[in-house]
Write a structure and sequence with these properties.
- With 449 residues, the protein is of the alpha+beta class.
- Helix content is 42%, strand content 19%.
- The chain contains 18 helices and 16 strands.
- The longest helix has 20 residues.
- The protein is elongated, with a radius of gyration of 28 Å.
- The two termini are 54 Å apart.
Length: 449
């Protein structure tokens, strides 16, 4: 039986690993420039830590881990017979792979808040797992690169995260549009339409506008028993101006007497206005009133980043979650965070040919193998090169030179070094550039210098 990969997972070749590291290094550098410090959490958490934080749809996508040993021994026969999966899960699984980095971070804050200096800024670059249906740009195992701030309600944090997003993507040379909304505006819209008790149904449907269009959203709202009258009140959502501040002015009028909606408009107006005053263009930062992101825990700003030159869905997202640590028994620790989708960013950069040539590290010198004595002398020179931070290796066997040439060419090694008996005797070394064909002879000391 041939080996195979689990669905939604991938192997990464050396070239892919180097390119992924290139992206990570750019993000890590910018995280630290903005004052964020690194954090790592376990790959799995208690199932109770994760469930109930992502909405019904998200909970279904959590990878549960079977209890060790005879996990079925403590189950109830009636639950097996009834195929009651919800009751069985709690009996056979106590752990789960993390679904994102935000909830584990909230758990960390709840456990350690007494020792923290607020506002606390952390970044985290680790894999997460989701039992999603694999498709282009969507995997079951993928990396998230998160930056979060907790302990501050200042809207300047939102502005800093806007800058962090745009600076990082500019350095990666990925053209993006950062879409911005506010959960309070969505709550205000639900109140305006008289469907406050169906806020989640409303936002989950609205978030799918890009995929299923207006007709699809309206159909889903009707299926969720949202009345046609309420849908008619929200019709203006599908006909927004290109000018963000004009749309906010329209909302102000509709939200008169609507406290939560007005608060959302004022917060978003501050973030947009200050960002524009700091030189961010209106083409890069858009108010997207239909942006909902179907997660239950956002309470204020919502972010989503999309590449403009390739169809890929979102390559980043996040928002404010002022109540998240309350589920762990710790109140009054507001938070806001964003995430970079490493895997999708990679696919965008690959499709557009944006990786620089030097993003892939290759061995600089391959020393030809002429036999045991010559190899020993070559290894001494190789050791000195490595001490200087220069990559070099010895071909492992004393094979025909043609075979050693082929090896160097296939690995992309630019220089083949000849250090045979005569060179050793003369204290010289011969270096052949395999790209240009140029060959030079130097004294060993000159070469090492």
């Amino acid at each position: 039986m041939k080996p195979s990969l689990a669905k939604g997972t991938r192997d990464f070749s050396a070239e892919e690993v180097y390119r992924r590291k290139f992206i990570i290094n750019v993000l890590q550098k910018n995280f630290e420039l903005f004052g964020f410090q690194p954090l790592e959490t376990p790959s799995f958490e208690n199932l109770s830590t994760l469930t109930g934080k992502y909405g019904e749809e998200g909970d279904r996508l959590i990878f549960k881990i079977l209890n060790s040993g005879d996990y079925a021994s403590k189950t109830k026969d009636e639950d097996w017979s009834a195929k009651n999966s919800q009751k069985l899960i709690s009996q056979i699984s106590e752990k789960a792979l993390r679904y994102d980095l935000t909830v584990p971070f909230a758990r960390y804050v709840a456990m350690n808040h007494g020792q923290m200096t607020f506002p606390f800024k952390r970044y985290q670059i680790q894999p997460v797992w989701r039992a999603d249906r694999p498709q282009k740009g969507r995997f079951r195992e993928f990396y998230q690169c998160d930056a979060d701030v907790v302990g501050s309600v200042s809207l300047w944090q939102e502005i800093e995260l806007v800058q962090l997003y745009l600076k990082s993507f500019a350095e990666l040379k990925v053209n993006v549009v950062l879409h911005l909304n506010n959960r309070k505006i969505l709550s205000g819209l639900a109140e305006f339409a008289g469907i406050s008790d169906q806020l989640i149904d409303f936002t989950v449907a609205l978030d799918k506008l890009d995929k299923i269009g207006k007709e699809g959203v309206v159909k889903e709202l009707l299926e969720k028993n949202i009345s046609q009258d309420s849908i008619d009140k929200l019709d203006f959502l599908f006909n927004q101006s290109e000018k963000a501040l004009e749309n906010l002015a329209q909302l102000k009028e509709k939200f008169q007497g609507n406290e939560i909606g007005t608060a959302g408009v004022e917060e978003l107006e501050f973030v947009l206005t200050k960002s524009f005053e700091l030189g961010i263009s209106e083409e890069s930062l858009k108010f997207d009133i239909t942006l909902a992101r179907g997660l239950d825990y956002y309470t204020g700003a919502i972010f989503e980043v999309k590449a403009t030159d390739v169809a890929m869905g979102s390559i980043g997202g996040g928002g404010r979650y002022d109540n998240l640590t309350e589920v762990f028994g710790v109140k009054n620790i507001p938070g806001i965070g964003i995430s970079f989708g490493l895997d999708r960013i990679y696919l965008v950069m690959e499709e557009l040919g944006l990786f620089p040539e030097d993003s892939v590290n290759v061995v600089q010198y391959l020393f030809a193998n002429y036999g045991e004595n010559e190899s020993l002398a070559a290894m001494k020179v190789i050791g000195q090169l490595r001490t200087k931070g220069i990559s070099a290796e010895l071909y492992p066997e004393s094979a025909k030179l043609k075979k050693q040439f082929t090896y160097a060419e296939k690995k992309g090694i630019p220089n083949l070094v000849f250090y045979g008996e005569q060179e050793i005797s003369d204290g010289k070394i011969t270096i052949k550039n395999l790209k240009t064909g140029e060959q030079i002879i130097q004294m060993v000391e000159e070469f090492l210098d």
